[in-house]
Amino acid sequence: MAFRLAGTAEGVSLGIGAACALMGWNERQTDRALRALEDASLIRQTVPGRFDMHDLVRLYAIECGRRIDSRDFRKAAAQRLAAYYLHSSYEADRRLAEFRRPIDLPALVDGVIIEHPADESAALHWFVSEYQNLVAAQRAAAKQEWVEHVWAFAWTLDNFRWRSALIGDDIEAWQLGLEAAAETTLFARGLAHRRLGRAYGRAGDWDLALYHTRRAIDIADEARDEPGAAHSLRILSWLCERTGDEAAAIDAATQSYDRYFAIGNPVWTAHALSVLGDCHSRAGDEIAARECWERALALHREFGHDSGEAETLLAIGGSSLKHGNPEAALAFLQKAAEIYGRLKDTYNQADALEHIGVALRELGKPAAAREQWIQALTLYKEHGRASDAERVAKILRESDADETPPDNQADVP
Fold first, then answer.
1. CA 30, CA 72: separation in Å to the nearest integer?
2. Which 8-state DSSP code applies to residue 105?
């Protein structure tokens, strides 16, 4: 039985926790069965506690299962595995983003033991280890038309993908989530549209980003979902700022702030203040911008919201750089980069590194600046951020040219 069920697990290597859920056994029974399969060369242990099966062996296992096991038996195993991945990813996400509004999940299947990562670092490690399996679990749920699972998987993976700059995966997951949400609630549909708007914004598809974000606002208002409307307005402000509509950006940011303040959530209010500061800065009102950022920074620090602190530090550092104060900018930017590095938020870390390079260049430290730009360029390429990568590559070429002496002075000591 263990062999036949192991073949049904989509994704990559199977961890012991997932194997227990799939087989419906305790850890001791499951480990004994997996060791027996390993001894028979039917599976292999890629790293301690994780097992993989060759594709041809997997096909044979699936064929045996279809011939021997009932459909209900196979379905029950698939439901246990889906429950394990969904509820475990939810618990892991709570360690990454404790300030997120919770959602209701499908009931946990009896007998399934899920993961409870002890802290943020453990949660990140679990997501890295299980990511491909979680992607496969959402796709499998979509095939089975388990709509609540499909939508919830998009949600539980959203924060990890955002930090890891998995933009294409994020779009795919929320498209599946939006299709599934059509059969659930207005809240689910509004959230799916909002996340798609944010994801398309990162991808630079502004038309789709604005369409989904505005749909999210309309649905949130229809559902009387004040937090959802406030979140969507904050994203709309960011999109309008990026597309050059400064008046609309300030209006949306102000509406977002007012709604957050009325709700009484200080971390959400701080996010809106940070975005409002960005809008004021782009419009040329640095006094209003700095006031918003300082209020945001104080709230983020008071409530221990590290990613919000880094977001605001990055904004203040960028403004200080723009206004000719590279020394002050460097302190803000280095702190932002340190926090983003600790959070494994490589998308925003890349932006901070690029700005640090500029600050170091202005301070007369070209070699140190170059090191930061090379790191930023590497991350931009990994994320598929072509225009950002080309901009930094151009900076590096220009810095190389500046440091190369003319031919007739090449031998001058």
1. 21
2. -
